[in-house]
Amino acid sequence: MPERTTAPISPGNPDDDWDSTTDVEDHHPSTALPSGSDSGEQTDETEDHHRQIRHEKQTKHSGLPDTKRDYKLVEFAEGDPENPMNWSKAYKWWCTMVVAVTCFAVAFCSSVITADVGSVAKEFDVSYEAALVPITVFVVGFGVGPMIFAPLSEVYGRQIIYASTLLVAVIFVIPCAVSQNIGTLIVCRLIDGIAFSAPMTLVGGTLADLWRNEERGVPMAAFSAAPFIGPAIGPLVGGFIADGAGWRWLYWIQLIISFVVWVLITFTVPETYAPTILARRAKKLRKSTGDPDHVTEADLDPRPFSERMRVFLIRPFQLLFREIIVLLISLYMSVLYGLLYMFFVAYPIVFEKRKQWSKSMAGLMFIPIAVGVVLAAFCAPWVNGHYLKMVKKHNGKPPAEVRLIPMMLSCWFIPIGLFIFAWTSYKDLIWVGPCLAGLPVGFGFIFLYNAANNYLVDSYQHQAASALAAKTFIRSFWGAATVLFTEQMYDRLNDQWASTLLAFISLACCAIPFLFWQYGARIRAKSKYAFGGDEDPALDSDVEKGRKPPHHDMEDLRRAMSYVSNP
């Protein structure tokens, strides 16, 4: 290993040694960027900012007045073997597949129990609606968990969050499998939902840690289908398990699968989050050299974690109720998420209750949804290629509305599939119609979801994590609620008109991407929170008024990477 040197930071002239440390005094520091960020995205700090940092750090640690102090910034050098982006391609693909399989397993666990709700109601002597509550609270946990685990991962890294939360999830599957009352099932499923949400929250960020922008298309395409295939495969496998072994084995299979992925991700995937890796390097350097001035970019942020956590919890709701873009996109994604979970109730109604099929046969009807998702994943590189052309056309700075193009093209697939499902689901008609209706629905889901996430990230770059957190929160609660009233809706409106109502709702939502295509730029121009360009001041939330700390441009984008792929 080359000997470490200390040199002033010079943008575009990084050190060549692996321990790359730089003197932050009187120079612009190169931000310790998250993996997946280009060097051109680095944040520049002003000289006054540096004086403020020196003052605050000295006051905090030594109580001394404002005196001159040099910090040695620890960052990755070019070709650094500890940088996850420089790992071998084979190992990066291994890590990618492990986190993708983990994501699939979590999505599978969310839906597999929908295959046999009736047996739970019968054994515990509760209503069918009460037996649906374990499904509902699991989805609620999916909305609550990211609000906790995303900021925690910034402090402790991704690996420890993966390992600890999956272990909790594995443990609390066991009481579900042996439960003797509905209360135990509900409480443990809620805990599982919160714990299982962590991998779904962090997996997108892990891929951004591993792959550079120009390399990320195929890995993201391979991964992006996992959160949507899982819910489709769950009822399929669950139907055969329920018919052959009973409803409790729907939980034992979750235990087996979740334990396997816990072992894989805990013992074969190391830490990939750049700030955490650099923090460990800085700590090691301070210990080996006795020099306390080895720091990372995160160390130079004087804000306490409690303040950052408070902002992270409050800002999503500010955006949700003050930003029409966030509100309408969140409502649209909530409708889609609700439709996905409605299918878990509607399919058993149509195929089991009306057509008198077995659970295993009814589960086969979810295959076209999975096929549609896979087809959409294969189209993802084409969509990415088109976006890169638009980037070039706009000299590297395309408007956020370019992200709406896939959304405007694919939004029609959802209502088309629902109309087909509605009017071919008669008891005496052949099964082909309602079965194949899932194909366009699955195809549209993934296109719409990815496009919506990208539009929010591009529109609210400095506030992107908060915008996506708002969407995740409202979407999860709506998805949880729809499970509880779907059966009553189908009983009162009949199968055809209940599905038609859903089709018209999704058809009305098709106006949203066209609305923002026409007026989105004007809305963002008047917005207090929307990103306005490289020099955008990105006004802080009300929580921060009166004491505005230094803002790191990439901080919210680091968080946002964790949400982009969260289904």
UniProtKB/TrEMBL annotation:
Residues 51-60 have a biased composition (Basic residues). Residues 542-553 have a biased composition (Basic and acidic residues). Residues 14-23 have a biased composition (Acidic residues). One of its GO terms (cellular component) is plasma membrane. The keyword Membrane applies. Residues 1-66, 534-553 are annotated as: Disordered. It comes from the Eukaryota. It is found in: Membrane. PANTHER family: MAJOR FACILITATOR SUPERFAMILY, MULTIDRUG TRANSPORTER, PUTATIVE (AFU_ORTHOLOGUE AFUA_5G02700)-RELATED. It is a multi-pass membrane protein. The chain crosses the membrane at residues 91-114, 126-148, 160-178, 190-208, 220-242, 249-269, 324-350, 362-383, 403-422, 429-449, 497-517. GO terms for molecular function: transmembrane transporter activity. InterPro entries: MFS (IPR011701), MFS_dom (IPR020846), MFS_trans_sf (IPR036259). This is Transporter. Keywords: Membrane, Transmembrane, Transmembrane helix. The keyword Transmembrane applies. Residues 95-526 form the Major facilitator superfamily (MFS) profile domain.
